[in-house]
């Protein structure tokens, strides 16, 4: 189980299970991360995460995170 998020997670890269960058953590609070999406993030990945193309800051819930390792937060494979 992944720990709750905290200030030390700010600035970490968020990546898919395949290692593709989704965005960067702009704010971390408990069970939610605020993410600034990568500019080159594909439409299909945005749709799977429930993000629109116009979103500049999106929320990612702890339930979608598989692990936190170093400077990266890894999403679950089934997303």
From TrEMBL:
<protein>
    <submittedName>
        <fullName>DUF2171 domain-containing protein</fullName>
    </submittedName>
</protein>
